[in-house]
Every structure is written in C-alpha cells, then in structure tokens.
C-alpha cells in the first residue's frame, strides 16, 4: 500500500473516530478528507496523526478540539515550520490529563512563536559561517534539520518572554564570534536553549547571554552547557548572592581559563569565584543579604 492510499485509509478511519467521539459538525465532516489530503501533501507522518487520534479518543477529547489540533499542525507543516511541536505538546498535555481547552492557548502560542522565530532564523542560517559550521559537523545534522531545531529552541526562548530583537542579536553575536569556528550544531542549539533557564531578570539577559558566549569560547561542550543553568542556580542558593553576582563570578572563572568541569563543580559547591566555598567576585560582597558593610 503506497503512502497516498494509506492517507485515504486514515482519512476514513479518522472520520469514523471523530464521529464517534462526538461534537463534529456536518461542515467539519466534509472538510476532513481535505484536511488529511493537506497533511499528506505537507509531509506529516501518518503515524503521528494516528497516535494523536488514538490518544484523543482515550482521553475523551471531542472531535472539534481534535480537529483544531490537526489544523494547527497542518498549517505549520505547510509553512515549513517544525509541526512536530504541536504533536509533542498535545501528547504531553494528554499524558498529564490537561483539558483540551487549556491546551489550546499553549498550542496557539507555539504556532505564533515558531513563525516569529523562523523569520530571523531563516536569515541567520544563510550566514556563511553558519553553513560552514553545519558542514564541518560531518553530516551529524544537515542544514535543514539544524534550521528546524534552531527554530524550535528560539521559539521556546520567545515563549519565555525573550525579546525577538534581543534573541536575534544574540544569534548574530554568536555567529560572528571566534568561538563559532570551534563549536558544532549541538553546542549552538544547547547554548540558545539554556538562555531562558539562566537566572536573572529581563534587564540582566545581556550579561547572562554573555556568559553563554564566553562558555562557548572556553570550549564548553553541549553536555557542559546543559549543566550550567542548574549549576548557577545552585551557586546562587548556596551563596545567597544576587544572580548578577553569580554571573560575574562565572565570567571571571571563564576568563581565568578554569576548565569547564572545574567551573561546574565550583558552582555546585557554592564557590562563586572559584576559590573556597562562598568566595565571590571582588566588590560584590556587600550584596549578600544581611551584609550591611559600608552602610550607616
């Protein structure tokens, strides 16, 4: 059975299931074959549609809500956006028992932010340095898959209230930095993905992004970068220092050439400046809560 016939089969199966779960209006029933044909043309995997339908039926999601999810996935696929994000979030919500009406705003936000992310990511991946970096990776990730993954992590950052222009600037800064010649797609994706996990307010994001860039320069691997947000948060809790002080301490360790593994261990131990426990960057000791030195 070829792929076209498989989609005709699933269109009929889907229509039967949608009718069985109820709340499918006559007009929607007529649109279903067209929707499945659009999904086929856009390249959506049949197995994903089947999984979505089966899980929705098990969770009692009605036909109208299920159709809405499919429409969002198809619309993203037709715009060459990573539509898998809709399925993944829908599966996650169903597994947690989240009602469909509460999932819908989240799915709407994914559609919006993914489109916004693609606007600048599509320009960014055309940079010669980016193309060279992907080529240098030895085929572990081709340009299209790297683009899609970058859209995903950028969309996630936007959903965490990262400013679009600020994120675009961070990407351009990373691509223009000397560290870009020594990194790989996995490292860059992780670097962008952890931005929203780092502590600090929106006004401090330039400094936290700077730490990520310096970590790339220092040779942090993707695995090292994944541990950095947790390590910084642990250091902040143990030292009771503001996020800015911890970030400054990490910057000083990076600039001092301390190896990645040692920096992470220092942070987990609360060694902000890389010295004994509780050590902190010069000039920031007065920021510790309860420390009134220098104040009358």
| Contiguous helical run count | 14
**Percent in helix:** 55-70%
Kindly name the structural category.
mainly alpha
Question: Would you tell me the overall average pLDDT?
Answer: 82
The run of helices and strands is: HHHHHHHHHHHHHH
Rounded to the nearest angstrom, the radius of gyration is: 24 Å
User: What kind of sheet is the major sheet?
Assistant: none
Uncertain parts: 283-296
Strand content: under 5%
Summarize the structure.
This protein has helices at residues 3-21, 26-42, 46-59, 63-78, 84-95, 100-124, 128-136, 143-159, 164-176, 185-193, 205-217, 222-239, 243-255, 260-268.
Structure notes:
This protein has 296 residues and is an all-alpha fold. Helix content is 69%, strand content 0%. It has helices at residues 3-21, 26-42, 46-59, 63-78, 84-95, 100-124, 128-136, 143-159, 164-176, 185-193, 205-217, 222-239, 243-255, 260-268. The longest helix has 25 residues, at 100-124.
Task: For the structure shown, list the relevant keywords.
single chain; mainly alpha; 14 helices; 296 residues; globular
Question: Topology of this protein?
Answer:
Elements: H1 3-21, H2 26-42, H3 46-59, H4 63-78, H5 84-95, H6 100-124, H7 128-136, H8 143-159, H9 164-176, H10 185-193, H11 205-217, H12 222-239, H13 243-255, H14 260-268
Helix pairs in contact: 1-2, 1-3, 1-4, 2-4, 3-5, 4-6, 5-6, 6-8, 6-9, 8-10, 10-12, 11-13, 12-13, 12-14
């Amino acid at each position: 059975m070829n792929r076209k016939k498989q989609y005709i089969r699933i269109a009929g199966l889907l229509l039967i299931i949608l009718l069985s779960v109820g709340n499918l209006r006559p007009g929607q029933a007529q649109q279903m074959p067209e929707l499945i044909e659009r999904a086929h043309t856009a390249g959506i995997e049949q197995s994903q549609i089947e999984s979505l339908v089966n899980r929705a039926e098990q969770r009692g999601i009605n036909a109208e809500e299920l159709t809405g999810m499919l429409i969002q996935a198809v619309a993203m696929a037709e715009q060459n956006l990573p539509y898998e994000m809709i399925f993944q979030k829908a599966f996650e919500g169903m597994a947690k028992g989240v009602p469909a009406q509460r999932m819908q705003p989240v799915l709407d936000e994914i559609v919006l932010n993914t489109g916004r992310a693609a606007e600048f990511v599509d320009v960014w991946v055309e940079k010669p340095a980016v193309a060279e970096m992907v080529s240098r990776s030895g085929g572990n990730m081709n340009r299209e898959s790297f683009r899609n993954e970058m859209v995903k992590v950028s969309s996630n950052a936007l959903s965490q209230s990262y400013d679009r222009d600020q994120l675009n600037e961070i990407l351009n800064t990373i691509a223009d930095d000397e560290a870009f010649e020594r990194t790989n797609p996995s490292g860059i994706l992780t670097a962008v993905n952890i931005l929203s996990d780092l502590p600090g307010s929106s006004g401090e994001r330039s400094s936290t992004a700077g730490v990520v860039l310096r970590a790339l320069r220092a040779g942090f691997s993707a695995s090292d970068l994944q541990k950095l947000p947790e390590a910084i948060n642990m250091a902040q809790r143990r030292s009771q220092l503001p996020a800015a002080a911890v970030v400054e301490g990490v910057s000083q360790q990076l600039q001092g050439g301390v190896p990645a593994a040692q920096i992470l261990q220092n942070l987990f131990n609360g060694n902000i400046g890389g010295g004994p426990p509780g050590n902190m960057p010069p000039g920031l000791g007065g920021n510790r809560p309860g420390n009134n030195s220098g104040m009358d």
